[in-house]
Amino acid sequence: MTEPTDDAPAVRLEAMGRDNLGRDAAPWLGPVRLAVGLLQGLGLFWLHRVSDEGIDWPATQPLLFGPLLLVFAFLPVMLLAGIGRLRLRTLAVWGLVAGAGLALLGLHDIARQSADTLLGPPFLSPPVILFSAAALFIAHHLVAPADMERRRLASFPAYFDTATKSLVQLALSIGFTGAFWALLHLGAALFRVIGLDFLEDLLREDWFYIPITFFVFAIAVHLTDVRDGLIRGVRTVALMLLSWLLLVMTVVVAGFVAALPFTGLQGLWETGNATALVLAAAGALIVLILAAYQDGRADNRPPMILRIAVRIAAVLITPLIVIAFWGLALRIGQHGLTPDRIIAAACALVGAAIALGYGWAAVSPFWRRGEWMRPLERTTIAAAALALILILTLFSPLADPARLSVADQMARLERGAVTPDEFDYRFLRFESGKAGQAALARLARSSNPETARLAKAMQAERSRYDVRVRGEQAAPVIESWPVGTALPVDFLASANRVGPTVSCAAAGDCVATRRDLNGDGKSEIVLARRSGASIFEQTDGGWRLAANYEFRGCRRTLDPRAALKTGRLMVGRSPWPALALGDGEPVSPEVNEACPPGSPAAAGDEEHGRLTSR
């Protein structure tokens, strides 16, 4: 394929712009876009309603809800961007492929999770939502320019023009939608002051605010699309501002790299997020380099000082990526693979490809005159395709990060790299889906008695938020008051440092005494902590948490532990009664009273004594 000349892409882009403006003027474009936005809003409202009301429809099942959510959330946005720009046949085929891809990503994410994580909508894990959106954006902006230029591989100016215009259009549309809602809430406040609450009540209705949000977003997309000059103007200003920020980022990163021989990397490793930090810096450099380079046309080249900064920044990406791989290698060597580390490695791989291409582009002009940073164009397109492939691979059965992590962690345990009492059973139980739970079941049948005991204990846990304790479950450290008294043995045995006793980890953290608080002839246990107190009552099934108090603001005039020891932790009387629903158990109120002037609450802490009955 013949390489296009510098002038050819510009001519084509100008023709594309005139063609798109002509298409946008078609009378059917507006109604179609608004229909897409309305259907998106109705679809998301339907999913919200059936999940919120617990309706037993097929769509409420995780295997359907997750894929439908991805499709309704992201596919219409792609259609809004493609209508009027892609040929109808291309748009139809691409829409079907994109919808199927989103559904399969959602289906795999749901299928790999365990029942413990599928407790309620949206069922999807945050990474799959984020990377599905990224994959759709990359794929669409590889397809659209190629269709516009009627080529399998479009020119770099076409890719750059389409992608940056879409980003600006997206930002303006989100801003327009936010402004719309701000004005509606302002109007509701105006009506409320004159005693009319109809608008405020309307804004609370999900059948209104969900569809209208996406309908207004579609309006914004259409309005910004028919004003192509507006988008280009905003984009020009944004790129100009970002390109000058490249100077700042280049100086910062250059100083960081230059200081490393004198400071070493120990401080960076001690942060615990060294890889994420340097990858973020590398990503910032890449974005700012592209903002300065723009579409590569000669008439868009930045001033000399920015051209120098682009070359230096392109070279600086390499040491950042090297540090990222180094940090990942150290963490994986110490603690093995996790899904986050696998995803970080994939990001670093894309960064390495960009560092190689951009570094070559930075030095090649010294012997290839007239082609300033030209290899950057092919590198950017190839890196986008690589990122798309990696996303589809990682979030599919081909290279599921959870499955790979479980296999690596099990291998570390088998070869003795980690001892049974140091092994992360919680990762298998709660953080790696079905693959982890299957591995935990194998460990529970292990011939090593210690491994089997710890694995079975983790299988018995029901919440991922319980405090992690190695070996035997540690009992809470609770001081019994008065001195010389003892708390019931069954209470100490049942208090597994969960709930209020989670903070009772060391001597002095908690103080407890026995006292009959409700006059029933039985002694309850009052436990005082640093910021509150709890009441435990004895039932036929053992001790249970009956009430929990938090003292904040002007309510915390004493340390609750000191108050208990000095007899100043007393039963108060609430000015408001407990309320019950029908024959249900009464619930005490959360008291919220004004604090006197000069009290701690006057400085902004307006939370006071709080009681929660269970």
Can you describe what's shown?
Strands 1-2-3-4-5-6 form a six-stranded mixed β-sheet. It has 614 residues and is mostly helical. Helix 3 runs antiparallel to helix 4 (88-112). The chain has helices spanning 7-24, 29-52, 62-82, 88-112, 126-148, 156-193, 198-203, 206-226, 228-263, 266-270, 274-293, 304-335, 339-363, 375-394, 401-414, 425-430, 433-444, 449-460, 489-494, 560-565, and strands spanning 479-480, 511-515, 524-528, 532-539, 542-550, 610-613. Strand 1, helix 19 (489-494) and strand 2 form a beta-alpha-beta unit. The protein contains 20 helices and six strands. Helix content is 60%, strand content 5%.
Q: How do the helices and strands line up, and which of them pair or pack?
A:
Blueprint: H1 7-24, H2 29-52, H3 62-82, H4 88-112, H5 126-148, H6 156-193, H7 198-203, H8 206-226, H9 228-263, H10 266-270, H11 274-293, H12 304-335, H13 339-363, H14 375-394, H15 401-414, H16 425-430, H17 433-444, H18 449-460, E1 479-480, H19 489-494, E2 511-515, E3 524-528, E4 532-539, E5 542-550, H20 560-565, E6 610-613
Parallel strand pairs: 1-2
Antiparallel strand pairs: 2-3, 3-4, 4-5, 5-6
